[in-house]
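Write out this protein's structure.
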Amino acid sequence: MSPSDFQPTLLVSLLLGGFVTAFLHAALPTHWLPFVLVGRAQRWSLATTLWSVLAAGLAHIAVTAVVGGLIVAAGLALDRWIAGVLPWLSAGLLFVLGLFYLSRSTIRRPLPAEGPALEAPEPTVSQAAAFWGLVAVMAASPGEVLLPLYLSSAEEGLLVLGLLTLILAAGTVLGMAVFTTLARAGASILRLERWARYEGAILGLALIGLGLLVVMHQH
């Protein structure tokens, strides 16, 4: 699709939806609790902890973008054979992932009200090893819930894909930083773990909403 074919409303909806999805995805405890635990264990300041969040979040999105690019390439190749399949395939993936997270949030055991203990032992690794270990953990796990967004924007061109990647990076890093900072402020007071039990339902509904948005724009 050429730049003249851009639909501003659809583009804004895609980017806004991508930011919200990335932010909600960052609410997963795996995206902030390790930084709180390691930061306490290593006696990091808030600034050092947030630097690790920034580096790990960018690595997380970089790997997600690479995987998303491969999905786009495969999707475009498929679309040459089956006209119009790409938007429906992306909507289907959004629905499936949304239903997965929504159903998982209703059947998994509730988290303890007091949440996981945040007490940490004395540092046992070097500061550099702890820092890059967190980055490696996030880089090794691309954001699977973000991948359908690449597929849904595949036909919009490289510019839109680049903008989408920047938006996902902003939403992910901001979300990780916010939840990490709040958790450091005192999880026992803020009770973030109590709210964490609802993140699956919220994320699932958001993904289903994005899927409906893609379907509506096919008519």
